[in-house]
Design goal:
Layout (H helix, E strand, L loop, with lengths): L1 E2 L6 E2 L14 H15 L8 H11 L7 H19 L4 H12 L18 H4 L8 H15 L4 H11 L16
Antiparallel strand pairs: 1-2
Helix pairs in contact: 1-2, 2-3, 2-6, 3-4, 3-7
Bound molecules: zinc ion.
Zinc ion binds next to loops.
Amino acid sequence: MERCVGCGAVLPVTEGPVHPYMRSSPACFAAFNTLIAAEYSSGKLLEVNRLTVDTWAVQHPGSPEDRRAVQSVGLHLARLMLQLASPHPPREANAVMLDFARHKKTLRPLKPPTVFRLTASDAAPFAGSSSHASKVRDWAEATWLDWSNEHRYIRAWVAERCERPIAPVDPRTSITA
Ligand SMILES: [Zn+2]
């Protein structure tokens, strides 16, 4: 067995490709690709594709020395927040993402959680099934909460750069935010 350097999932040792800067074990990358493949083969599951991508991305932050990795984590965490916390549909979240991308150089390295309670390997066994979307949502919501130490930073970063009216809400902090 092998522990994923990104999300911590303990999975069988396999040979296979990994992402160039979102560092993971080959087995974890394969679990992610299983979810993505199911989403691309179903119009309905395609709706959660961005959630899958953002969630996996922020669980595999790579090296803080690698500027691509730093920007990737920040942008995906911002989009994950928008998808989970605002009523805007995914297409609009994507348009907002393009606004953010223009400011990605201002993102600082984020400090990832030490533990993720759910990983791609918890959702992948349900790929393509009637539980696929709900498993991805559970994984995404848990991951956003795991990142709570950086909520304040990413919320402020979004508020400062966002050119569209967005009011992200966090159920735990919305009263004081
Ligand atoms: Zn992983």
